[in-house]
Design a protein that fits this description.
Blueprint lengths: L5 H10 L6 H16 L3 E6 L36 E8 L2 E9 L9 H44 L5 H16 L3 E7 L5 E8 L10 E2 L6 H5 L4 E3 L16 E11 L2 E11 L7 H64 L3 H30 L8 H17 L4 E5 L2 H4 L2 H20 L6 E10 L5 E12 L10 E10 L1
Parallel strand pairs: 10-11
Antiparallel strand pairs: 1-3, 2-3, 4-5, 4-9, 5-6, 7-8, 8-9, 11-12, 12-13
Helix pairs in contact: 1-2, 2-3, 3-4, 3-6, 3-8, 4-6, 4-8, 6-7, 8-10
Organism: Streptomyces spinosisporus
Keywords: Kinase, Transferase, Two-component regulatory system
Protein name: GAF domain-containing protein
């Protein structure tokens, strides 16, 4: 190896280890391989793209470089004339091949080119291994934080329906899925979607039933996870909504020997399949969420028992009070009748009796009102729903977006407009979570907005400080602002 080529090699070796993001690391490897050898075409062909969530070969992107050469199966035989292929190993496992073609003036690759690539490939294996460890640690941290957030939310006293929606929403966000749905048993022996969280209107997803006899039903009712490569074409999937989705996970919500239901996380058609790490982490999330649901149900049961006990006490107090007052009033009237008191005295006694009866009626009304009050429920309305979305996004972002409300939000925004606003908010938060370097997100809901046509409206504004990278930023390249308006 000539001395003139050592400095570029050292620079290339250092460059491939400067980033812990796997996709960026692979891109560095391809670019540096092409620069070292002068190849016009470069690609990294992986053995198992699905393992690391890779959906395409990564070509070099330097100016003047032509598209990547077609990949031969990694680990295949000797390269053909005019091409160069060098394997990359991560520990003792074959990760893939660096595949180069197109030397200037159709010159052949030299033994020195191949030697340089072998050195680069060795360093690339280390960098890929480190990137894998870092990505696995980040994923595990996000899922653990999400599971903890779900447990906290469920134990704050949500209703059963809200609790299931909380699990579905958080799981959808963490898995980067198109939908998060929960299925439960039907009386007929099948399973039915009872809760659905999607970026858009769930439409006819809720109520979809897996009929008895479906091939996948035996596994689901048995508490076994089911992994689907493509929901639209898998013969085990029989629902009428399957054509909308691609890769999917169906995970049991089971705790203490009790099957609560199934958590399904389908991605869109054409999206990358779930990796083994994602499947493992999602399964652990489902187990913890099921335990939290059981604990929340037990807590709700204790709260109901406390309410019933309090109502028993109220009933006993009511019985004692009413009986005592009615008995005393009756004795008072009977004594008046026996004594034959004067007119003024009788009038005073009757007035006192009427007052006692009025007081008794008031006590009865107060007791009945207390008995009719339901147990305390979680906050509702637009404010509560927006705050819940912000809390859900915090599990992925690592920080909680700030929120601000202007005007009479809960009283002026109708349910229909609120549903549309929440859909747009989910989209904006999901897009922000995928942008690099986001450290702050601001959510603003304003019902004092005047629309262009003069009508009063509500405006949703979501701002972040990440790198847009697509020219959509309003501040010259840093940060993105998403605005949505609707009439009230």
């Amino acid at each position: 190896m000539t001395g003139a080529r050592l400095p570029p090699l050292f620079e290339a070796v250092l460059a491939v280890g400067t980033d812990l993001d796997l996709h960026t690391t692979l891109q560095h490897i391809v670019d540096r391989a092409a620069e070292l050898t002068g190849a016009r075409q470069a690609a990294l062909c992986t053995v198992d793209p699905a393992r690391d969530g890779l959906t395409e070969i990564l070509p070099g992107t330097s100016p003047g470089r032509t598209p990547a050469p077609p990949c031969a199966p990694p680990g295949a035989g000797p390269h053909s004339p005019g091409t160069l292929r060098v394997p990359i190993h991560v520990q003792d496992e074959l990760f893939g091949d660096l595949h180069l073609a197109g030397k200037p003036h159709d010159a052949p690759f030299t033994a020195e080119d191949e030697q340089l690539l072998h050195v680069l490939a060795a360093q690339a294996g280390l960098a890929i291994g480190n990137a894998r460890l870092y990505e696995a640690a980040r994923q595990r941290e996000r899922w653990i934080e999400g599971a903890a957030a779900v447990t906290t939310a469920l134990l704050t006293g949500e209703s059963a329906a809200d609790a299931l929606m909380t699990v579905a929403e958080r799981a959808r966000i963490l898995a980067d899925a198109a939908a998060g749905v929960i299925l439960q048993r039907t009386e007929a022996g099948g399973m039915e979607i009872v809760t659905a969280s999607t970026y858009e209107d769930p439409g006819d997803i809720v109520g979809t039933t897996i009929r008895p006899g479906s091939p996948v039903l035996v596994q689901l009712l048995g508490g076994e996870p089911v992994f689907i490569d493509d929901s639209a074409t898998d013969p085990r999937m029989t629902t009428h909504v399957r054509h909308r989705f691609g890769p999917s996970m169906m995970l049991p919500l089971e705790a203490d020997g009790r099957l609560i239901g199934t958590l399904a996380l389908p991605r869109r058609r054409g999206d990358r399949p779930y990796t083994a790490v994602e499947r493992l982490l999602a399964g652990q999330f489902a187990s913890q969420a099921a335990l939290a649901l059981v604990l929340a149900d037990a807590q709700a049961g204790r709260a109901r028992l406390a309410v019933y006990e309090d109502r028993d006490r109220i009933a006993r107090d009511l019985h004692d009070l009413v009986v005592q007052r009615l008995f005393a009033t009756g004795m008072m009237l009977e004594s008046t009748q026996r004594r034959g008191s004067g007119e003024d005295e009788v009038q005073d006694i009757l007035t006192q009796a009427v007052d006692e009866l009025r007081s008794t009626v008031q006590e009865v009304r107060t007791a009945i009102f207390a008995l009719q009050q339901p147990p305390a429920a979680p906050p509702t309305g637009v404010r509560g729903r927006v705050l819940r979305e912000a809390a859900g996004a915090a599990a992925v972002l690592g920080f909680r977006p700030s929120t601000r409300f202007s005007g009479a939000v809960d009283s002026r925004v109708t349910d229909r407009v609120a549903d549309r606003l929440l859909t747009e908010l989910r989209r904006a938060l999901a897009a922000a979570s995928r942008r690099p370097d986001v450290s702050r997100i601001e959510i603003d809901v304003d019902t004092r907005t005047r629309l262009p046509d003069g009508r009063e409206g509500v405006r949703l504004t979501v701002r972040d400080d990440g790198r847009a990278g697509d020219g959509t930023a309003e501040d010259g390249g840093t940060g993105t602002t998403v605005t949505w308006e609707a009439p009230l």
